[in-house]
């Protein structure tokens, strides 16, 4: 689900729609009605953890955020400026990574800016385990950090 933040219309009929994601869903079936695409969906929410699992998740969350922030700040100024212009600044780290049913906003921001193929991105987007999503982001960050010329 997307929230429309802004729409710019151009004289030739084109438009640019600025949106932000609100919630994830999986399409169970789809069709058409009165010329409109329709679908039956199932909302996706992260599975919550407690106790020692939560403490471990919090440590992982903080470590991956710091790694992601470090990667972003190490980018060349022109690339960083393009990302900031298009996606805005990286969202701040939440004190409780489970406060949203979809997990921390910064994870979604990172998935949008990391150089990932669509299939890999979709796999991570569909995860309902924040721990698994954080591990996946960590692996991608390790790959892009070590691949970049020094």
From TrEMBL:
InterPro entries: Lon_prtase_N (IPR003111), Lon_prtase_N_sf (IPR046336), PUA-like_sf (IPR015947). Residues 1-145 form the Lon N-terminal domain. One of its GO terms (molecular function) is ubiquitin protein ligase activity. It comes from the Eukaryota. PANTHER family: LON PEPTIDASE N-TERMINAL DOMAIN AND RING FINGER PROTEIN 2, RING FINGER PROTEIN 127. This is Lon N-terminal domain-containing protein. It comes from Aquarana catesbeiana.
């Amino acid at each position: 689900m997307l929230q429309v933040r802004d729409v710019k219309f151009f004289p030739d009929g084109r438009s640019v729609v600025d949106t932000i994601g609100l919630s994830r869903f999986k399409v169970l079936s789809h069709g058409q009605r009165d010329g409109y695409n329709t679908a039956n969906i199932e909302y996706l929410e992260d599975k919550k953890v407690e106790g020692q699992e939560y403490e471990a998740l919090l440590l992982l969350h903080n470590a991956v955020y710091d790694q992601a922030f470090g990667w972003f700040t190490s980018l060349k100024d022109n690339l960083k400026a393009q990302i900031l212009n298009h996606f805005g600044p990286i969202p701040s780290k939440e004190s409780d990574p489970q406060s949203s049913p979809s997990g921390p906003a910064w994870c979604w921001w990172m998935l949008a800016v990391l150089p990932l193929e669509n299939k890999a991105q979709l796999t991570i987007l569909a995860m309902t385990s924040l721990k698994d999503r954080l591990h996946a982001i960590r692996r991608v960050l390790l790959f892009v950090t070590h691949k970049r010329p020094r």
